[in-house]
Amino acid sequence: MSALLQLLWLASPALPIGGFSYSEGIESAVAHGWVHDEVSTAHWLSQQLRLSQARGDLSLAAQALRAWREDDRATLRRLNDWLLKTRESAELRLQSEQMGRSLLDWLRNHDTATPAQIAQCQALGQPCYPLVMALALAASEAAPEDALLAYAFAWAEAMVGAAIKSVPLGQSAGQRILARLAAEIPAAVAEAITTDESRRQAFSPMLAILSARHETQYSRLFRS
Asked: At a CB cut-off of 8 Å and minimum separation 6, what does 131 contact?
């Protein structure tokens, strides 16, 4: 299968890893009035892409992608440990663990990764989603930039889908927001690729607070 088709498959919302069930704080932001229409939703997700994804998970995925291709097991373990330690709420950690576990199950049933890579991933104990997705992307043999573009677009599409349901928004509004995010993704990927371990961060205080509050929110559609 071509690298492009593999990237399209991995970025598809039909990938059975449960991404549709998480809003990553959007539902809580709606409940607290921070997100309430198309403009505020676009601003929220744009900031999350730039301040959280580009400097955090997307940056780590870039480093994990390289580590998988170089079979650098020490780096892979260090990256996964960092992910587990820096999830800022119980919901965000459970999301990363569940999606990582589901994606690993998917990889077991396909020829995307080798049995040795699957075993290595499993040996991490609780392989987190960015690390497992990096394995799937590494196996595609796509260029790092293209692989991370697919990773980022999958995140953007999932978040827009969550916003459409929770704000709520119409489909046209959702597509306009997705268009804005798509235009901003290349810069986020470029930043992620050039961010080394000393500059990678997971510091999004408002997102963390809203995620923690979501755990006891009275009415919820999403798991985060």
From this structure: 60, 61, 64, 76, 79, 80, 83, 100, 121, 124
Given a contact cutoff of 8 angstroms between Cβ atoms, the answer to whether 149 and 185 are in contact is: yes
Say if residue 208 is exposed, middle or buried (CB neighbours under 10 Å; 0-12, 13-18, 19+). Answer: middle
Closest by alpha carbon to 154, among 35, 87, 57?
57
| C-alpha distance from residue 147 to each of 30, 40, 56, 182 (Å) | 31, 29, 16, 14
Q: Which of the four pLDDT bands, split at 50, 70 and 90, describes residue 87?
A: very high
Q: Are 22 and 224 in contact (CB under 8 A)?
A: yes
pTM over 0.90: yes
Query: Which domain CATH number covers 201?
Result: 1.10.4190.10
What SS3 state is found at 10? helix
98, part of any domain: yes
The encoded tokens of residue 221 equal 């559609």
Residue 221 in any domain: the answer is no
Encode pLDDT of 13-38 as tens digits. Answer: 999 999 999 999 999 999 999 999 99
Tokens of 149: 């573009």
Asked if 45 and 155 count as a contact pair (C-beta separation under 8 A), the reply is no
Kindly tell me the burial class for residue 104, based on how many C-beta atoms sit within 10 Å of its own C-beta (0-12, 13-18, 19 or more): buried
